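Technical annex, item 7. During the second reporting period the consortium partners agreed on a shared format for inverse folding records so that results from different sites could be compared directly. Each record opens with the tokenized structure and is followed by the designed sequence. A conforming record, contributed by the partner at site C, is shown below for reference.
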């Protein structure tokens, strides 16, 4: 990679879209790469490493602002474990809340499925009446002022 990589190759290497790479550059998460004579972005090895760092940080649930902080810490020689621990704790809290939301959603879906199964069992071979779940959804959307 002595001459550098153009954005398409970097996108393949990192699994990011070209749009995402440009977005990270605009957000200041990535140093602006050099440009070729034809004005194409030319990424060096460090730029590719930074993009992979951003990807992994996002997989761990860090926000863009937190990734910006992690990038600063990555580029300095200061001991940063306590700060990183605090960021990890925040990310873990968000994941736990999301897990609680998903469990609530799972419970709601199971309840709705039981209602459908019960209604279908009651109706047997008779012509079905309107689905009770659709009735509930319709009632809920009407009660919110829509």
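Designed sequence (site C submission):
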């Amino acid at each position: 990679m002595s001459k550098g990589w153009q954005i398409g190759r970097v996108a393949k290497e990192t699994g990011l879209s070209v749009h995402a790479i440009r977005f990270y550059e605009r957000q200041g998460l990535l140093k602006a790469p050099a440009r070729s004579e034809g004005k194409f972005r030319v990424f060096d090895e460090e730029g590719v490493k930074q993009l992979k760092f951003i990807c992994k940080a996002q997989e761990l649930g860090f926000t863009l602002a937190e990734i910006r902080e992690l990038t600063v810490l990555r580029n300095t020689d200061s001991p940063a474990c306590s700060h990183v621990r605090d960021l990890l704790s925040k990310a873990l809290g968000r994941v736990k809340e999301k897990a609680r939301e998903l469990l609530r959603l799972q419970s709601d879906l199971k309840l709705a499925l039981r209602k459908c199964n019960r209604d279908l069992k009651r109706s047997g071979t008779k012509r079905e009446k309107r689905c009770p779940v659709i009735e509930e959804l319709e009632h809920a959307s009407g009660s919110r002022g829509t």
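The longest strand covers residues 41-43. Strands lie at 5-6, 34-35, 41-43. All partners now use this format for quarterly exchanges.
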